[in-house]
Bifunctional ligase/repressor BirA (Proteiniclasticum ruminis), 323 residues
Amino acid sequence: MVKEELLKLLEENRGEILPGNDLKDALGVSRNAVWKAIQLLKEEGHHIESIKNKGYTLLKQSDVLSVGGLTQALGAQPSYHVEVLEEVPSTNTYLKESDGKKNNTLVFAKKQTKGRGRLGRSFFSEDPGGLYFSLLKIEDLLQYNPAYATIACALSVRDALSEVSGLSLSIKWVNDIYYEGKKLAGILTEGTLEMETGTLSSLILGIGINVNTGSFPRELEDIATSLFMETGRTYVRQEVAKSVLSHLEKNLLLTKENPDALLASYKKHLLYLGEEITFLYEKKPRMGILKDLTAEGHLLVESEGSLLTLHSGEISIRKGDQT
């Protein structure tokens, strides 16, 4: 308890020196108890500097995912129920298999052993510099249109990462974030429908971002990248999460309130628009020009003299004749 309360104080005053006497008074414990809690936090990886005769400071670049740190960073609106797991096969799967979770439960994993993407693909998520989390929505679902949930999520991640990094990022339809031909982040949204009414009873939004990842397995080196690798800067992941969630809450409302505006913003960053692509259509490879995005968020491709509408889950896009 002392450790968590101490971390909260340090997070609230990140970068500032807090005297030991002030900390012990605020926590109602001894100086020795404060020192022990500081050592435990350091063992967990928090970058805390002990300054002789002055006190302690949590360095601004300290990057450790913790319930206290995330709760402090995310603020009170909306109220999230934060969990941080050391290791889990998949945060989406964890939420799907858990009973009794509250609305706005937000689960972070320091490591995913079976990170999942669209169409059953895997997502590399075993690096300690990654940001892997899922958000559960089970209340007020009528204010969202689930048909646009993935688009809202992808746009939110793109906009947030572009803001924090300064990079010009693109969206590869429907749910991957790219920078100069390499994947930076992926999204997996999953919903549960009530069989009798056909209405949405839960929505899970899973997000995986390569934030401070310094390297990838050899087979991914040419197709994956991270914010750190592209900018040379280390990011505080809880601040990245805060930015993503801020955008996400707004864009989820647009799925119902103004889907046209949502789609227009998404389309601005759509990769390969107006270019020749190869794709799978009815399980056969074809080539065509990516012409537009429909009002439903599907792709329009001109191929062999016809306009084809490509739906989520049916295609795999590659630019030109790439494999």
Remarks:
- The first helix runs from residue 2 to 12.
- The mean pLDDT is 89.
- Residues 81 and 105 are 5 Å apart (CA to CA).
